[in-house]
């Protein structure tokens, strides 16, 4: 009943908000709109109720406000109503006053917005509806968070993840602490799951506005006791310093940096070690342990890097493991959260474990269902299966069994032997290897000897090799030093020796490459590449390279890789990978047979090359794509000229170089002139290179974030739409977002997609559109998404966007732009996927997957 009611009301609320879209960004209306909903709800439910938990004086009554709606200072009328409610009701302290609506809205300009929202809310009636205010605000918060993107989801936990955490924690009753409580979602879910339980909740939240929403959310709750603290940072100003509770449940912000202060270095909470300033994960874990009673239990959601990071964190993790306080680790799949794509894990901590000296590991990284192009949902059956599995293991049920690839109960001795790493994949095994007998295999460490590289001289010029220069082809694995470029000195670079096997330390592929010798001095990054000597008395080089490319080796590699963004593998783990090494004579026979099979397969594929070549030749014959390129940049020229002309008209024909045109981005007249010159330069470049052939500039390593910002500044701009750039820095794990493509061709992609959005999607002149670009490192790719909230694709076009001439309507047969985008992506080895979701907030989108490059 509750879910139906929430969905019904939420759809009606959003219809009201859509009516004012364009006058104000919807995200700016969140606190105002929720305040109006609160006013209407409290009036409908409790004005005539003498037992009302909320006192509603005359100035806050709905009929009084309705009569004042035509007042020129209607904003002040609403503010007075909210102030009266807050001052006369203790549970509303620090709510409406925190929102500070007078500061955010201008009386004259925004009065019409206030009236429009008020009229819309006036149509709602909560008199006899069986819906709680908490469920109403929950739906609204989720919807606002989706609308706001990354920023809006900073304090929301997906409902399916909350449900799983609560099922695992099983807090039937007692005291519960959430020290990163957000709007109190865990509290609401617990009371919903355990209606017979008697609870005392304690919540701390740093963000004042978020905490105010939490206070409003539970203002009508009488059956539960909820105590919120002041809005302070939990890690530096614990508001419940002496509190001991039965349960702690938290979803703190992932991997917080620069959190440490002098006062926290001797904090009694940090019994197992002082957490590093660079990451607060183990501060949160120890905070939870400190506040648990002797039999207390905790569920915490953290990013996966807490399972394997080194340094101080490794020492703290070891101490907590040895204290036997970790009961279970459950890794979750990526894309569960709207604000980040990185995967996370649930830590179950228990001060009185039923299974002493054991930890249950569950690898649930492959569960869930994609509900749209960017977000995954845990299914109810999956939540039930995982929680039942955990309960069965806790209770010592004889029906519990380890399942290869999914779950395993591990003794502390096994964790010690794995260097106190807690990644479930290390322990649960690999399902694909279950049928492969590795009993006769040997470790790579038996045939490879690590070669410690020598330091390089700062005054010598070296050729440099990076991961992108390593071989991906098992039949072409020798390093060609002639293609390497010379580079400057770097501290992490080392001197390459002769007769060395190179293996990538980063990414999801080994890329084994062999270097014989060179007259040039070659430098490589020791942070990105391992170097080894091969024992040729035991293994043939060609056989070894072919074997390292096989699936059974890749499965083991995937199991050992660590990292939420750019994955890595330790040298010891790499050398522990098992490989079959038969006698040398047999190795050569195996390699020759397998190579013959590969060559026959390639020859078969080449039979289609002539037909493909004919199609490409036909596409190259017309000059339409070149005209398209030129017109795009001429449009940029015109946009700059229009802006500068307008500035002249406003200043009586005078232009000042330092005068600001766009205050939001600090763009001056001089900078706009520079952009005009750059656009003219592009036009000249394309005119000079007109040809019947489809040409591309040479690829170079570029910073994707930087080039996108430059494209935004140079590209088309008008009042009809805004360009948003969202960079998910947490996914990069300190790596730079570098890709291999030419700058001109990348700008082609940007301009073509934006131009198509403007011409075919942004059709309602009264609506404010968003062209959103997100950059993240997901599943071993640098992923760039271009999405917009304009009109959906015409039917069938999304499947044929990469066909030249595809266009809907009267211009059918003339489409070039998106075909060119597909051709550019293909040329630079980039995966391209089109989103076509007509019912979504952002129905149109393009996903580009680049290999992440290193310098």
Q: What is the secondary structure topology, with strand pairs?
A:
Blueprint lengths: L1 H17 L11 H17 L15 H6 L6 H15 L7 H4 L1 H4 L2 H16 L10 H16 L10 H11 L4 E5 L6 H9 L5 E5 L4 H10 L7 E4 L16 E6 L30 H11 E12 L7 H12 L3 E6 L12 E7 L7 E6 L5 E2 L5 E2 L2 H15 L12 E5 H6 L7 H4 L13 E2 L4 E3 L3 E2 L6 E4 L19 E3 L5 E3 L4 E5 L8 E3 L6 E4 L3 E6 L6 H8 L2 H10 L10 H6 L1 E2 L4 H23 L2 H11 L4 H27 L9 E3 L4 E2 H20 L11 E4 H11 L6 E7 L10 E4 L1 H18 L8 E10 L2 E8 L28 H11 L3 E6 L7 E7 L5
Parallel strand pairs: 1-2, 1-4, 2-3, 4-5, 6-8, 15-20, 26-28
Antiparallel strand pairs: 5-7, 6-7, 8-11, 9-10, 12-22, 13-21, 14-17, 15-16, 17-20, 18-19, 18-21, 23-24, 25-27, 28-29, 29-31, 30-31
Short recap of the structure:
The protein has 855 residues and is an alpha+beta fold. The strands form eight sheets. Strands 3-2-1-4-5-7-6-8-11 form a nine-stranded mixed β-sheet. The two termini are 57 Å apart.
